Amino acid sequence: xxxxxxxxxxxxxxxxxxxxxxxxxxxxxxxxxxxxxxxxxxxxxxxxxxxxxxxxxxxxxxxxxxxxxxxxxxxxxxxxxxxxxxxxxxxxxxxxxxxxxxxxxxxxxxxxxxxxxxxxxxxxxxxxxxxxxxxxxxxxxxx
Length: 143
Known about the structure:
Layout: E1 5-15, E2 18-24, E3 34-35, E4 37-40, H1 47-59, E5 68-78, E6 81-90, E7 105-112, H2 122-130, E8 136-140
Parallel strand pairs: 1-6, 5-8
Antiparallel strand pairs: 1-2, 1-4, 2-3, 2-7, 5-6
Protein backbone atom coordinates (compact mmCIF):
# COMPACT_ATOMS: atom_id res chain seq x y z
CA UNK A 1 0.00 0.00 0.00
CA UNK A 2 1.26 3.43 -0.90
CA UNK A 3 1.68 5.62 2.20
CA UNK A 4 -0.81 8.43 2.64
CA UNK A 5 -0.41 11.30 5.05
CA UNK A 6 -2.95 14.09 5.21
CA UNK A 7 -2.94 17.33 7.15
CA UNK A 8 -5.91 19.04 8.74
CA UNK A 9 -6.67 22.03 10.92
CA UNK A 10 -9.09 22.19 13.86
CA UNK A 11 -10.06 25.64 15.14
CA UNK A 12 -10.66 26.00 18.87
CA UNK A 13 -12.62 29.27 18.63
CA UNK A 14 -12.95 30.43 22.23
CA UNK A 15 -14.85 33.35 23.74
CA UNK A 16 -15.57 33.91 27.45
CA UNK A 17 -14.76 30.28 28.46
CA UNK A 18 -17.00 28.90 25.70
CA UNK A 19 -16.04 27.13 22.48
CA UNK A 20 -17.77 27.28 19.12
CA UNK A 21 -18.99 23.80 18.16
CA UNK A 22 -20.77 22.49 15.08
CA UNK A 23 -22.85 19.37 14.52
CA UNK A 24 -21.74 17.53 11.38
CA UNK A 25 -24.09 16.24 8.67
CA UNK A 26 -23.84 14.87 5.12
CA UNK A 27 -20.03 14.59 5.21
CA UNK A 28 -19.57 10.83 5.51
CA UNK A 29 -17.41 11.28 8.63
CA UNK A 30 -18.81 11.42 12.17
CA UNK A 31 -22.16 12.74 10.93
CA UNK A 32 -24.48 13.66 13.81
CA UNK A 33 -21.56 14.25 16.17
CA UNK A 34 -20.20 17.58 17.39
CA UNK A 35 -16.82 18.96 16.41
CA UNK A 36 -15.08 22.27 15.88
CA UNK A 37 -14.45 24.14 12.64
CA UNK A 38 -12.04 21.87 10.78
CA UNK A 39 -10.85 20.79 7.38
CA UNK A 40 -8.06 19.40 5.23
CA UNK A 41 -4.98 21.38 4.36
CA UNK A 42 -5.05 21.65 0.57
CA UNK A 43 -2.03 20.65 -1.51
CA UNK A 44 0.30 23.64 -1.76
CA UNK A 45 -1.39 25.42 1.16
CA UNK A 46 0.34 26.17 4.46
CA UNK A 47 -1.34 25.45 7.79
CA UNK A 48 -2.02 29.10 8.69
CA UNK A 49 -3.70 29.76 5.34
CA UNK A 50 -5.84 26.63 5.81
CA UNK A 51 -7.01 27.99 9.19
CA UNK A 52 -8.00 31.28 7.58
CA UNK A 53 -9.80 29.55 4.69
CA UNK A 54 -11.75 27.11 6.89
CA UNK A 55 -12.83 29.91 9.26
CA UNK A 56 -14.24 31.90 6.33
CA UNK A 57 -15.82 28.87 4.59
CA UNK A 58 -17.49 27.29 7.62
CA UNK A 59 -18.43 30.17 9.93
CA UNK A 60 -17.86 33.34 7.91
CA UNK A 61 -15.20 34.93 10.13
CA UNK A 62 -11.87 36.50 9.21
CA UNK A 63 -8.75 35.57 11.16
CA UNK A 64 -5.36 37.25 10.81
CA UNK A 65 -2.32 34.96 10.95
CA UNK A 66 -1.04 36.66 14.11
CA UNK A 67 -4.33 35.68 15.83
CA UNK A 68 -3.61 31.95 15.37
CA UNK A 69 -1.97 30.12 18.28
CA UNK A 70 -0.96 26.46 17.90
CA UNK A 71 -2.42 24.55 20.86
CA UNK A 72 -1.30 21.06 19.91
CA UNK A 73 -0.70 18.42 17.26
CA UNK A 74 -2.38 15.02 16.95
CA UNK A 75 -0.97 12.18 14.81
CA UNK A 76 -4.00 10.05 13.98
CA UNK A 77 -4.62 6.78 12.16
CA UNK A 78 -8.14 6.47 10.76
CA UNK A 79 -9.62 4.14 8.12
CA UNK A 80 -6.27 3.26 6.48
CA UNK A 81 -5.26 6.92 6.40
CA UNK A 82 -2.72 8.76 8.52
CA UNK A 83 -3.43 12.33 9.62
CA UNK A 84 -1.47 15.13 11.21
CA UNK A 85 -4.09 17.36 12.86
CA UNK A 86 -3.12 20.87 13.95
CA UNK A 87 -5.32 22.22 16.74
CA UNK A 88 -5.17 26.00 16.94
CA UNK A 89 -6.62 28.36 19.53
CA UNK A 90 -8.46 31.41 18.19
CA UNK A 91 -9.55 34.10 20.66
CA UNK A 92 -9.76 37.11 18.32
CA UNK A 93 -11.40 37.41 14.90
CA UNK A 94 -13.45 39.73 12.72
CA UNK A 95 -17.14 39.14 12.06
CA UNK A 96 -19.97 37.27 13.74
CA UNK A 97 -19.81 33.47 13.40
CA UNK A 98 -22.74 31.92 11.53
CA UNK A 99 -23.48 28.60 9.81
CA UNK A 100 -21.99 29.24 6.37
CA UNK A 101 -22.26 25.56 5.30
CA UNK A 102 -25.78 24.43 6.27
CA UNK A 103 -25.47 21.42 3.94
CA UNK A 104 -22.58 20.06 6.08
CA UNK A 105 -23.45 21.61 9.46
CA UNK A 106 -26.75 20.81 11.18
CA UNK A 107 -26.21 23.21 14.09
CA UNK A 108 -23.72 25.77 15.39
CA UNK A 109 -23.56 26.63 19.11
CA UNK A 110 -21.33 27.92 21.89
CA UNK A 111 -20.63 25.44 24.71
CA UNK A 112 -18.82 25.94 28.02
CA UNK A 113 -15.35 24.40 27.78
CA UNK A 114 -16.20 22.01 30.62
CA UNK A 115 -19.70 21.07 29.33
CA UNK A 116 -19.24 19.74 25.80
CA UNK A 117 -22.03 17.82 24.05
CA UNK A 118 -22.03 14.11 24.94
CA UNK A 119 -21.62 13.17 21.28
CA UNK A 120 -18.48 15.25 20.68
CA UNK A 121 -15.93 13.40 18.53
CA UNK A 122 -13.57 11.73 21.02
CA UNK A 123 -10.23 13.05 19.76
CA UNK A 124 -11.70 16.56 19.44
CA UNK A 125 -12.94 16.38 23.04
CA UNK A 126 -9.46 15.34 24.22
CA UNK A 127 -7.90 18.26 22.34
CA UNK A 128 -10.37 20.76 23.82
CA UNK A 129 -9.58 19.54 27.33
CA UNK A 130 -5.83 19.92 26.67
CA UNK A 131 -6.04 23.29 24.91
CA UNK A 132 -5.19 25.48 27.90
CA UNK A 133 -2.04 23.54 28.83
CA UNK A 134 1.42 23.81 27.33
CA UNK A 135 1.50 22.98 23.63
CA UNK A 136 0.89 19.25 23.39
CA UNK A 137 1.37 16.26 21.07
CA UNK A 138 -0.79 13.12 21.13
CA UNK A 139 -1.55 10.08 18.99
CA UNK A 140 -4.80 8.23 18.35
CA UNK A 141 -5.83 5.06 16.52
CA UNK A 142 -2.42 3.41 16.38
CA UNK A 143 -2.10 -0.23 17.46
